[in-house]
Sequence to fold (256 residues):
Amino acid sequence: MTSGEAETPGFREQMSKARQALSGHGPLVVLSGAGMSAESGVPTFRDAQTGLWERYDPTDLATPEAWRRDRDMVWAWYRWREHLISGARPNPGHLAVARAQDHRDVVVVTQNVDDLHERAGSTLVHHVHGSLFAHRCDTCGTPMDAGPPPPEPADSLTPPTCTRCDGRARPGVVWFGEMLPSAPWEAAVSAVSSAAAVLVVGTSGLVQPAASLPGVAADAGIPVVEVNPGASGLGREVSVHLRAPAGQVLPGLLAP
Fold:
């Protein structure tokens, strides 16, 4: 969206409808996806596929099988991603969501594994796909502090050893083939079910089961507003769809 498009009567009308839909006095739930982080320059798997990682298919590194096969390589890959993401900064969309807490209850449910919502100031964030920075033991599940990631990529790094067992630290993300962490998922469903309004930002609406959450809201008669510069990945669930980047729209949309 260009600034000119934002000034068109049609967009202003949609913006007004969206503000009205989100104007309830109860909790606002923000469902965020990859598009939200992309506006901060967060690299995707493919974007991080540089230098020594060019010879790998990143999706082959995001599985339990890859971890069992060569955990030192997988650990090195994820530590490099941590380094890249640590250099990103919250964008105006993240900051607008955090500021909205000043005048209402806001719950963030994110599919993103970065910490940009927290760094922006959001205090209640549920990571349904895990967090890149929440390392845990691969054997007993004990949370582990792996320290800051190295500033240069390496093709092999040995994960720290758990102090409770002989396991090793692993990334706190959900790999392909793994179940979602139950506590964040149950909290997400509960938050959406009791929301006054749901704001969906930067998600394709294709990744299940997270993609089912707007439908949970719609079935309960809760308004759903989507902010996404591309075509909607949702359907009947959406009350209003603003085709615009989050960083351009959310500051005005969420202002009191």
In short: The mean pLDDT is 89. The first strand starts at residue 28 and ends at 32. The first helix runs from residue 3 to 6.
